[in-house]
Specification:
Length: 268
C-alpha cells in the first residue's frame, strides 16, 4: 500500500489483532514524512531508490523497519522502440515528415513538473533548431505555435504510440522525484532523455545510454546547453532487446515478491 493515512490506521490497530501481523509499506515517493512512532511500528518498507531510503533514514533519529529497494517498472510489451521504417510511418500518421526532430514533454501542468519553465526553454530552442517539433502530452494548457502539437490527456493505452515517434524527451521536474516513471517510458520507446538531476532521477537512469542530466534545473540556460549537447551527439538507437532490460516489469515483480515473502515471522 502507498497511503500514509491507511498505514497509520493499520499501525494503530496492529496490537489489537489476535495473530501475528506484518505491515509492509510500499512507498512511492522520495522522502518519508510519517511520524516516527508510526514509522517504527511498520515491519518492512519497500523503496523506489536507495537515495530515497537514505534521505528518509536521515530524516529520523531512529529508523527501525526492514528495508528493500525494489524500484519501479514499465511493461516492455507496451513500451518498446520502433525500427526506422515503422517510426517514419508513425510520424507520417501524426502529420510529421521524416526529417522532423520531435521533442516530447509529458506531464500535468503543475508548477513542480516545470511546464512554466519548458514554455520558456522552447522559445530559444526553436531559434536554434528550426527543424525541431514539439509534442506536448498530458497538459490541459496549450501553447499556440505552428510547430507544437498539444495532445492533452490520454488514456494509458495510447501513450506509447506518441512516445514512439519522439527523438527527445524533456523531464523538467522541479521536485525530488521518487522515480520518474514517464522518463523510463520515454527511454524504453527510443527517446534520448534530458532530465533534471533531482531526487532519485540520476540513480534511476544510471547505466542507460541516451541520457543527459541537467544540474541546477531551475536555470533556463542549463536546459538549453544540455539539449544542444544531446542534439549534437549521434544517437545510438536502442535495440528491442536492450529496451526490454530497462526497468522491466517481470524483473520488478521478482524483486517485489522476494521482498514481501521474506517474512519477519519466520523465526519465533
Amino acid at each position: 500500500m502507498d497511503d500514509p493515512h491507511l498505514v497509520e490506521a493499520f499501525v494503530l490497530r496492529k496490537e489489537k489483532f489476535h495473530c501475528p501481523v506484518e505491515i509492509i509499506y510500499s512507498f512511492h515517493g522520495f522522502q518519508l514524512t510519517l511520524k516516527e512512532h508510526i514509522l517504527n511500528k511498520i515491519d518492512k518498507i519497500l523503496f523506489l531508490s536507495n537515495l530515497g531510503y537514505q534521505s528518509s533514514k536521515d530524516n529520523f533519529f531512529a529508523f527501525i523497519p526492514e528495508v528493500h529497494i525494489i524500484g519501479n517498472c514499465v511493461d516492455s510489451k507496451h513500451f518498446f522502440p520502433l525500427d526506422d521504417i515503422e517510426k517514419n510511418k508513425m510520424k507520417e500518421s501524426l502529420g510529421y515528415v521524416q526529417k522532423d526532430k520531435i521533442l516530447i514533454w509529458m506531464a500535468n501542468e503543475r508548477p513542480i513538473k516545470g511546464f512554466q519553465l519548458f514554455k520558456k526553454i522552447i522559445i530559444t530552442l526553436f531559434k536554434k533548431h528550426p527543424k525541431l517539433r514539439i509534442l506536448i502530452l498530458g497538459s490541459k494548457k496549450k501553447i499556440d505555435h505552428p510547430n507544437i502539437k498539444n495532445i492533452g490527456r490520454l488514456p494509458n493505452d495510447q501513450i506509447a504510440k506518441y512516445l514512439q515517434v519522439g527523438d527527445y524527451y524533456m523531464f523538467t521536474s522541479l521536485c525530488k522525484e521518487g522515480f520518474g516513471l514517464s522518463m523510463i517510458e520515454a527511454l524504453k520507446t527510443g527517446n534520448t532523455v534530458i532530465a533534471s538531476n533531482n531526487g532519485a532521477i540520476e540513480e534511476v537512469l544510471k547505466g542507460n545510454k541516451n541520457v543527459f542530466l541537467v544540474d541546477d534545473p531551475n536555470m533556463l540556460d542549463n536546459w538549453i546547453q544540455v539539449f544542444d549537447q544531446a542534439f549534437k551527439v549521434e544517437k545510438t538507437n536502442l535495440l528491442l532487446e536492450e529496451a526490454n532490460t530497462v526497468w522491466n516489469y517481470e524483473d520488478w515483480e521478482k524483486r517485489f515478491i522476494k521482498a514481501i515473502r521474506q517474512s519477519s515471522y519466520e523465526i519465533d
